[in-house]
Amino acid sequence: MSAEELRPVIHVVAGAVTDGAGRVLIAQRPKGTHLAGGWEFPGGKLEPGEDRRAGLARELREELGIAIGDPRPLIRLRHAYPEREVLLDVWVVRHYSGVPRGLEAQALRWCTQNELETVQLLPADGPIVRALRLPERLVVASSANYVVNGSATVVQEQGPRLRGTICSDLIDARAAAPAADFLVLRDAATPVEIASFCAQVCIPVFARSSREISLEQVWALGATGTHDLEL
């Protein structure tokens, strides 16, 4: 068995806590901790058998003293450090009560989207910063931050925009995922179908808008948001 196979995988839940001005909160790792001095999105290890949203709520309560509601799934990614591998499970937190405070002696900083691009974040956090530019609802197929392509074979987008791909099923999704930054479900789907789809892909997923299911319910199923695109 290789060293990579023996390396433990730590499941970490993290929150991109945002304020009314759209700024995002980051925390500095205290002295004496792994990667001390680096900046990160607040969160911590998921306990064995713990629900992801429950773990996120617990971590942000313990670290920041806030109580969260309706977090929005954003992205899951793996990052290998020399001594460990981290599965980073990131959520956008817009709805919360309380004023964030560094309860574990960590420094806190509010950053604009542009400032996040220049902060010395931990190595695993780069894709998170890009994904934060995705809206909750896709209402146009192209913007300054992203472009949606019309097939499961991703057309290579030149430049910094996030690349989205339209998918009809999981076969499409698996074909597109290596090159896509996010996925857009072509057809309406049931809650069970949305949950199953989101459980099997790690990049953001946008479900078709429906009168039968609210945006908050879509988040609870694991999707990043909804879309009203003519596909």
Q: Any overview of this molecule?
A:
The protein is of the alpha/beta class and 231 residues long. Helices cover 22% and strands 30% of the residues. It is built from seven helices and 15 strands. The protein has helices at residues 3-6, 52-64, 113-116, 126-131, 170-176, 191-200, 215-221, and strands at residues 9-17, 24-28, 39-40, 43-45, 67-69, 72-80, 85-93, 95-97, 108-111, 137-138, 146-149, 162-167, 182-185, 205-208, 225-227. Strands 10-15-14-13-12-11 form a six-stranded parallel sheet. Helix 5 (170-176) links the parallel strand 12 (162-167) and strand 13 (182-185). The longest helix has 13 residues, at 52-64. The radius of gyration is 18 Å and the shape is globular. The chain starts with a helix and ends with a strand. The model is unreliable at 151-155 (pLDDT under 50).
Q: What is the number of strand segments?
A: 15
Q: Radius of gyration, Cα only, in angstroms?
A: 18 Å
What is the number of helices?
7
Inertia-based shape:
globular
Overall pLDDT score: 88
Head-to-tail CA distance between termini: 46 Å
- Supply the helix-strand structural class: alpha/beta
